[in-house]
Amino acid sequence: MADPLIPTVDLSPFFREDDEDGKNKAMEIITQACSHYGFFQVVNHGVPLDLLHKALELSRIFFEYPCQEKLKSSPPSAAPAPVGYGTQPQNSPNKNEYLLMFPPGSAFNVFPHNPPQLKQTLEDLFFQFSKTAVLMESIVNNCLGLPPKFLQEFNHDRSWDFMVAFRYFPATDETDNNGAIQHEDGNCISLVFQDEAGLQVSKDGEWIPVHSRTKLVFTGHLGGQHRRCHSGFEQQEIQERNTQSGETNREKPPLLCLLP
């Protein structure tokens, strides 16, 4: 399903030589999107779709393990951030469990032993997301007319970049919200890839649903706008009814946030 209200940018010209017209067209869309929206979708982004879907599937398998097995990947008590497996506090309005990682090689990372391919797949995806995010950072820097490498230097410590896979618990009734409440991301840039509709972004007080499963969504504190990973009461009711008799939890897939 198309998302006509959400600007869509084709990044393929930036992977080719001598396609200045394509680059200029993409930069025009990005400039307008950053100025008037604060978010846009990207296609032909260089991240292999088979890798994205593999990461989703392996994450889904992990989240279906018994709680005792998942807790083996909990962060150590001295960890500076909730790396590894965790769940939201019981009184939190956000109802989800998650698996969070810092860049590959970080001493803080805690990976599950099962499924066996999950660790390598997430590390590969982190690497691919990082390449796309760095490219986007450079393009946006130019589109906004900032000094050369301003965003790169502002966001120079990449050791705190993180990627997180979420699974949202099913709603218990028609009034239950099992997504994430309205919020603004605290980081400079977010790249989001979802397995099914759920993400919404806000513009001029209107919440716009994101339907695509093949595009990355770029958001950031660039245009004064904000987004929410929130399914809304009525929207979530529909989504729950469209699953396999409520047996499938909605999982928000890997999300890479590049921190300032």
Automatic annotation (TrEMBL):
Instruction: State if Metal-binding is listed as a keyword.
Output: yes
User: Where does the Isopenicillin N synthase-like Fe(2+) 2OG dioxygenase domain start and stop, copy by copy?
Assistant: 163-215
Source domain of life: Eukaryota
Lineage runs: Eukaryota, Viridiplantae, Streptophyta, Embryophyta, Tracheophyta
Q: Which UniProt keywords apply?
A: Dioxygenase, Iron, Metal-binding, Oxidoreductase
Q: Where is the Non-haem dioxygenase N-terminal domain?
A: 6-92
The protein's matches in SUPFAM superfamilies, at most eight in alphabetical order, are given as:
Clavaminate synthase-like (SSF51197)
Originating species: Corchorus capsularis
PANTHER family assigned to the protein according to its UniProt record, in alphabetical order: FLAVONOL SYNTHASE_FLAVANONE 3-HYDROXYLASE-LIKE, OXIDOREDUCTASE, 2OG-FE II OXYGENASE FAMILY PROTEIN
Which Gene Ontology terms cover its molecular function? dioxygenase activity; metal ion binding
Q: Which InterPro entries match?
A: DIOX_N, IPNS-like_FE2OG_OXY, IPNS-like_sf
The name under which this protein is listed is Oxoglutarate/iron-dependent dioxygenase
Give the protein family. Answer: Belongs to the iron/ascorbate-dependent oxidoreductase family.
